[in-house]
Amino acid sequence: MTDDTHTIRSGGLTATVKAQGAEMCSLRNDAGVEFVWQAEPAWPRHAPLLFPIVGRLANDELRHKGKTYRMTQHGFARDSRFHWAERGENRCVLVLEDNETTRALYPFAFRLTAIYTIDETGLDLSLTIANTGEETLPASLGGHPAFNWPLQPGLPKESYTLTFANAESSPIRRLDGGLLRAAVEATPVKDTVLPLSESLFVDDAIIFDRIESNAVRFAAGASTSTGPWLKMSWQGFRELGVWSKPSGARFLCIEPWRGHASPAGFDGEFSDKPGLMHIAPGAEERLSFRIEVASS
């Protein structure tokens, strides 16, 4: 154990979390399967937390009460060092609070708490945003975990699918210059199944802003016997992003979101941005997701 990372374990499952960004950087089972992308050059992150925005603001500018602040894509939490509030055998707690650096970018008081808990079949991440200030806190929050794709070396990437808990017939959204296009597109999901291929991501992420499911399974083939698989489920999140790079990058991001990029053409007050939570002084919002994994 170092001050930079902490590993939690239960049964044959281990997870390692970094203080930098409160980022999970490994989820491995006793069969030696690493489920998390190892931040290779194609995308040098593992599973960043997105706060206080998800996606991008127009011109990377946040406007509040006549002032303009620089806020780059996905916010600052992923590049901030959290402090350890608890470091146990199967649980760890990390906290980020507003400070001089964050207030120069985001003029609000907050406390963001990330609680990782592991058991024999999976990992839970519980996220709480508390408004510690005296004005309404406008914020978004998202997960951005990247998983190895394929999970089993030697399997073609095209053998993998995402299978949703419910049919996903609503249109999807796409991005232009990092901003949400006004036009919608037909969903690539066939009933509950999204066949995966690199070509899906030529036009950037697939954004489900009317998601019907609260769980999705990432696996090769239709049965659990075709190598390692994982299932993500979530509570409190209202959108889902699915993303990779269409250039041979061997990862797939499955991203529960509460919020999304600014719509193209929106350039108003940050508090008026669509998709935000508005947290009253003294109140808090809790969101969570779980990653269940298995070798076969």
Automatic annotation (TrEMBL):
Gene Ontology MF terms in the entry: carbohydrate binding; isomerase activity
One Pfam family this sequence matches: Aldose_epim
Gene Ontology biological process terms, A to Z: carbohydrate metabolic process
Highest taxon of source: Bacteria
The protein's name: Galactose mutarotase-like enzyme
